[in-house]
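Deliverable D5.2: sample structural annotation.
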Amino acid sequence: MRLSASAALAALLAAPALAETPRVLADTAPVHSLVSLVMEGVGEPGLIVPPGTSPHDMALRPSEARALGQADVIVWTGPAMLPWMEGALSSLAPDARVVELLATEGWEPLILGEHAHHGHDHGAEHGHDHDHDHDHNHGHDHDHDHDHAHDHDHAHDHGHAHGRPGDVDPHAWLDPAVASAWLGTIAEVLAEEDPAHAETYRANAAAAQERMAALGEDLRERLGPLSGTGFAAGHDAYRYFERAAGLATGGALADASGAAPSPRTVDELRQGVRSGDIVCLILDAETDPAWAATLGEGADLRTAQVDPDGVSLEPGPALYETMMEQMAAAFEECLGG
């Protein structure tokens, strides 16, 4: 029987210091799901951000801080998504192997302040070879003494939560092609840390990558025909999802930083609703639902509620696909009427 996320975290704390498999932590529910897929049949990762909690701003509880200190491998999105976690890693997990997914290669990032190009090749990379060695621990020793050089000195100043124009858009997990690349990276890291189960990690990742490819195809088949339908979002967090589904980039009340919309932005979106160019408003936990009434006054504006962080779902290997399926259904209903 699969453990709950809290039980998995407790098991991580209770595990002996010299466990056969590495103690693995993941930051958010979607990343935890990807790590869980890779580790199926071997072990279960702990989840740092508890279910029902927003990942963007939280304080670690003592049990979570202890888990960080005892972890061998920590997989996280990056400081552009969880700025509070960077200091915690440096102070609480100096000996862990830290994998910052937004800093890895093998996937095509979107840049804040730039328009997405949906006709790209999903196999494109950052302009480098994907050697899975971008986890801030190059050339480490695999004898599990974890005496690594982790200075957590990232190549970019990500600024506040969700970044600034010119930074990488951190919501990359919402593209199954990106998730597929991350699965490969996670598998290689775990294979290096736990050679006895390397074959299982790689086989699990390959199987999950096939499902990611099918998921991406399903998104394009369902939502691609609706690409001409205008929509807006509560905040600019869905460009990777739009890219994966073949949707035109929608407008947004707030930019990726989550800052309050300007009067000009509100007026432009309201005009789009009144003209019929915008027929759907995508809401999430960070969006005040009152905006639907503000923008839709005197017009027919449909709304859809989505959960891009998976905070309302049961953590585990099935969460990622369930989350994406629910998002696809919400977009499909809202755009298609």
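Annotation notes: The chain has two domains: 5-220, 225-336. Strands lie at 24-26, 46-47, 73-76, 97-100, 231-235, 251-254, 280-283, 302-305.
The annotation will be released with the project's public dataset once the embargo ends.
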